[in-house]
From TrEMBL:
Keywords: ATP-binding, Nucleotide-binding, Transport. The lineage of its organism: Bacteria, Bacillati, Actinomycetota, Actinomycetes, Kitasatosporales. It comes from the Bacteria. Signal peptide: none annotated. GO terms for molecular function: ATP binding. This is ABC transporter ATP-binding protein. Residues 41-263 form the ABC transporter domain. It comes from Streptomyces carpinensis. InterPro entries: AAA+_ATPase, ABC_transporter-like_ATP-bd, ABC_transporter-like_CS, ABC_transpr_TagH-like, Bact_Polysacc_Export_ATP-bd, P-loop_NTPase. The keyword Transmembrane does not apply.
Length: 263
């Protein structure tokens, strides 16, 4: 481990990142082809004409993440945590600044797309393929994925359509599919909050394994205990600004003082 920490290989670098959402009003000609062309050719002028509201969700955020780190991302609701994860995953453009990644980041959110009309079994296969696993790898790990999720503990749910699952069951299955593969950078949005303590413990153990394979894990959670059990470093975002970046206990103590113990 000493040799590993001496290397300190960066996996994600955020350099003064700004992320801005645009909320369009009901400006005249909003849906016309001319208006669309104007928005492309003269974006600022078109925004003003359409009554566009700009929401500055992430403001000048900089950090470096390294191989083998598990980093918690905390902050009160609307502070920009999920927005920042989406940008690291390449799903949202940055307004200013840069995000550099080594390897392909994988975002696992509670809303990660699986198909409700298909069975859990079919979704395991589709989800595995979407992550770049071969059919053979999926077959080899299929039972492990099902067992890890705990979906079948109270009946043969894996053969039922996903629409029959509770939100917690669906989220556990999503995490189990994503966790079956080793990732360069795994971004987890609230997945550990879904499920009983036994599932959370399995998830925490799996995150430790991913880190041993030199992966970097980011965890967004409102459950400070999950952050304490899983991460050794925490980024605290508040109103889009990075207020603190440091050791887990130090940052969580400051955050809990700020929120009065509430997330």
């Amino acid at each position: 481990m000493a040799e590993h920490s001496a290397e300190k290989i960066p996996t994600v670098i955020a350099d003064k990142v700004d992320i801005v959402y645009r909320v369009y009003g009901t400006g005249a000609g909003r849906g016309s082809a001319t208006a669309a062309l104007n928005r492309i050719l003269r974006p600022k002028k078109a925004e003003k004409a359409a009554g566009v509201r700009r929401v500055h969700a992430v403001k000048k955020v900089s950090f470096v993440a390294y191989k083998g780190e598990a980093i918690g991302l905390i902050g009160t609701n609307g502070s920009g945590k999920s927005t920042l994860l989406k940008a690291v995953a390449g799903l949202l453009p940055v307004e200013n600044g840069k995000i550099y990644t080594d390897g392909q980041p994988s975002l696992l959110g509670v809303n990660a797309a699986l198909m409700n009309d298909l069975t859990g079994e079919r979704n395991v296969h589709l989800g595995g393929l979407a992550m770049g696993m071969s059919r053979e790898q999926i077959r080899e790990r299929y039972q492990e994925i099902v067992d890890f999720s705990g979906i079948n503990e109270k009946g043969d749910f894996i053969t039922l359509p996903m629409r029959t699952y509770s939100s917690g069951m669906a989220a556990r299955l999503r995490f189990s599919i994503a966790a079956a593969k080793d990732h360069d950078v795994l971004l987890i949005d609230e997945a550990l909050a879904t499920g009983d303590r036994a599932f959370q413990k399995r998830s925490e153990e799996r995150i430790r394994e991913l880190r041993k394979h030199a992966g970097t894990v980011f965890l967004v959670s409102h459950n400070n205990n999950s952050i304490r059990d899983t991460c050794e470093r925490v980024l605290w975002l508040e109103r889009g600004v990075l207020r603190m970046d440091g050791p887990t206990e130090e940052v969580l103590e400051a955050y809990e003082a700020f929120t009065g113990g509430k997330s």
